[in-house]
């Protein structure tokens, strides 16, 4: 079974962070080590993940974890250093987390270059069976740029509305190369209602959505507001997330 990197991105508000957390939870049925990375410095991941950044472990010294900004500023990244700064989810020890910390002063970090981002992703792939990268925009985030280029699977979440159309137009150079391999490049209809004009959207943009849509239910909104993104979901949202997790498992077995 091969280790895989999964990059997930989409138009602003499509629900990528919620989906990343739900997918990590679902994948933990099949994999014992899943690393979720977020390089978003404008919305620090730990402020929405609902996880204490530096938990006190019983019988152990409370070691302060470094922000991903500090990690990427290091001149020589090693697997040992990266592992030391992965925070294990308190309710699921199969899931590790890495991102900017809440109230992080991002301006104190050196600008992230592509080499550092690529080293992080490459090293993470060696010790984590599944690495999920919650992406932002490649023009402003080197982690996103590298992840979209080198990920084994890229999931693009688009709302079938003007916001999704605008995103495709702005990111056309990245989207265009995501059309050749439906096994590697997956397009999800996010926040899609039953009456959404998905077929028209596909025709207009020349893409094909995954057969399962990803509705943004009241349950997902409630979990986000309560900082419970890693809790189990139900209904069609859960069915879609589980289907994608199964597809990733099959890819890992066949790769």
Structure explained in plain terms:
The chain is of the alpha/beta class and 255 residues long. It has a single domain, classed as Rossmann fold, CATH 3.40.50.300. Helix content is 39%, strand content 13%. The chain is built from eleven helices and seven strands. The chain has a seven-stranded mixed sheet with strand order 3-4-2-5-1-6-7, with helices on both faces. A hairpin with a 6-residue loop joins strand 3 and strand 4. Helix 1 packs across helix 11 and helix 5 packs across helix 6. The longest helix has 20 residues. The protein is globular, with a radius of gyration of 18 Å. It starts with a strand and ends with a helix. 42% of the residues are buried. About 3% of the residues have low confidence.
Describe how the helices and strands are arranged.
Elements (H helix, E strand, L loop, with lengths): L3 E7 L5 H12 L6 E5 L7 H4 L18 H5 L6 H6 L2 E2 L6 E4 L15 H14 L2 E5 L7 H9 L2 E6 L3 H9 L1 H4 L9 E5 L8 H8 L12 H8 L9 H20 L1
Parallel strand pairs: 1-5, 1-6, 2-4, 2-5, 6-7
Antiparallel strand pairs: 3-4
Helix pairs in contact: 1-11, 5-6
Strand content: 5-15%
Low-confidence stretches: 56-63
CATH architecture grouping: 3-Layer(aba) Sandwich
Spatial gap, N to C terminus = 7 Å
H/E series: EHEHHHEEHEHEHHEHHH
- Oligomerization status of the protein chains: single chain
Instruction: Enumerate the strands of the largest sheet in spatial order, edge to edge or round the barrel.
Output: 3-4-2-5-1-6-7
Radius of gyration: 18 Å
Question: Helix amount, in percent?
Answer: 25-40%
CATH structural class: Alpha Beta
Principal-axis shape equals globular
- Secondary structure tally, helices: 11
Q: What is the CATH superfamily?
A: P-loop containing nucleotide triphosphate hydrolases
Number of domains: 1
Average per-residue pLDDT, rounded, comes to 84
Q: Remind me, CATH topology? A: Rossmann fold
Which secondary-structure class do the elements indicate?
alpha/beta
Give a count of the beta strands, DSSP E runs of length 2 or more: 7
Major β-sheet, in short?
7 strands, mixed
């Amino acid at each position: 079974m091969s280790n895989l990197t999964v990059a997930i991105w989409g138009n602003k508000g499509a629900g990528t962070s919620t989906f990343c957390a739900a997918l990590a939870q679902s994948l933990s049925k099949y994999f014992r080590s899943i690393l979720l990375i977020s390089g978003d410095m404008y919305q620090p991941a730990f402020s929405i993940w609902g996880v204490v950044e530096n938990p006190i472990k019983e019988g152990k010294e409370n070691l302060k974890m470094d922000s991903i900004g500090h990690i990427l500023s290091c001149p020589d990244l090693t697997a040992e250093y990266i592992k030391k700064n992965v925070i294990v989810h308190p309710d699921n020890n199969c899931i590790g987390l890495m991102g900017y910390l809440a109230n992080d002063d991002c301006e104190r970090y050196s600008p992230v270059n592509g080499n550092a981002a690529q080293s992080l992703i490459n090293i993470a792939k060696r010790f984590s069976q599944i690495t999920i990268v919650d992406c932002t925009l490649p023009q402003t985030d080197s982690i996103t740029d590298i992840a979209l280029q080198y990920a084994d699977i890229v999931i693009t979440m688009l709302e079938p509305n003007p916001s999704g159309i605008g995103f495709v137009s702005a990111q056309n150079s990245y989207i265009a190369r995501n059309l050749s391999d439906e096994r590697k490049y997956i397009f999800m209809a996010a926040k899609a209602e039953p009456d959404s004009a998905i077929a028209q959207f596909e025709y207009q943009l020349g893409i094909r959505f995954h057969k399962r849509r990803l509705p943004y239910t009241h349950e997902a909104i409630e979990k986000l507001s309560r900082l419970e993104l890693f809790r189990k979901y139900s209904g069609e949202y859960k069915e879609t997330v589980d289907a994608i997790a199964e597809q990733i498992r099959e890819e890992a077995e066949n790769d």
